[in-house]
Give the backbone structure.
Amino acid sequence: MTTLAAIDYAPGEVHVVAPRVYPQLIKYMGSKAKIINFVSDSIQSIYDGGVICDLFSGAASLSGALGASYPILTNDIQHYSSLIASVYLKPVREIDTEALIQDSVVNYKTAKSRIDFDIDYEGFTSLEEFNEIEVRNRTLIDQNFRHHYHLFVKNYSGTWWSGEQCLWIDAIKQAIDKRVKSGEYGQAEYALTMSTLLHAMAYSSQGTGHYAQYRDAKTESSMLDINIYRQKKLQDLFVRKLDQMIIWSKENVIDLNHSLTTLDYTDCLKKLNGGTVYADPPYAFVHYSRFYHAMETLCLYDYPDLQIKGGSIVKGRYREERHQSPFCIRTQVNGAFEDLFSGVKKAGANLALSYSDTAMISLETLLDISKKTLKSNYEVWVEDLDHQHMTMGRQNDRSRDVKELMLLARRK
Ligand SMILES: C[S@@+](CC[C@H](N)C(=O)[O-])C[C@H]1O[C@@H](n2cnc3c(N)ncnc32)[C@H](O)[C@@H]1O
């Protein structure tokens, strides 16, 4: 099969392929999965050869959609993103699901036998009794564990997951790592099994789709709802999805010389030579490193120091060292976009930039920065979801309720 990297398009020539249908692994704030047709068509409308660089790839929707059609360079500062992208971009060898889970069971049983009090969510008859179990789970953070794979059971029992579910997270991670060490798993098998574990974590968590705050059982009804998640068998969610993902991967994944990086966007742009950049930076003041800290910690598995406030560990149990994105800091956001445009220009690339009307910067300012930075070397315009060419310049030009826009910049 020829890779499209080798194809040079004549100026103005547009080839549009329909996005591939792909399975989503996690719930992700700002994911473009729902508007992937718009994103994919916009990118392809300015593509004129080379790689498509997904500069802020997040849950990797773009790799999911276009990974079988174009060579992709996927990048995000968070490590979990490159693991998820790998699922869509890198073919896997055989994965023995049965052996992986059997090994995890042994790890789980050994670790559970080391906890000498009851952490199960059973037999409670009132809100008070339920909360006693929650507190008992949370006290595991004060316990000393002698075996290595205890990060989740210590740090997160009784938070987004029960102690039981945390034991399984540690146990599966241990079984995956063993296979990496023995050489049975290469990078692609590691990424696929880890991403599936991220999936099982997301769908057993009692939270609302991220890990910024877990819920407290304050009323009978919240207790009942939390308990639904406390009872979920994380290991079953894992196995079920793993089998599906292996089949999907075999049928759909093709390596068109894709590459994956975990860099700050400015460093990623320095490595780029031509091609088309898709930029979907954060658009609100909330840091992804806070919302998804537990996923990052699973990937790094580095027993991080937890953030302390007023002498105690903060409720959200965040990592002390977390990336602070300039796109989420009001005083830095304009400079961050300047760096983005100038990095794209230095790389000699085209740019498709997602913009949401909830962003921290106005579209007018963004266009001013783009014009100042890209100068006359680029043709710049904006499209909305209906692919309408918009007359830009003044914010109050538009009366329509526009949610998702794409700023397009094509080298002249
Ligand atoms: C809006 S999300 C991207 C969503 C993605 N397009 C999708 O469909 O899932 C923004 C991403 O930017 C990443 N990010 C924030 N600051 C960054 C930086 N300085 N360099 C690289 N990535 C960064 C975040 O980790 C987050 O995953």
Q: What stands out?
A: The chain has a mean pLDDT of 92. The CA atoms of residues 227 and 390 lie 49 Å apart.
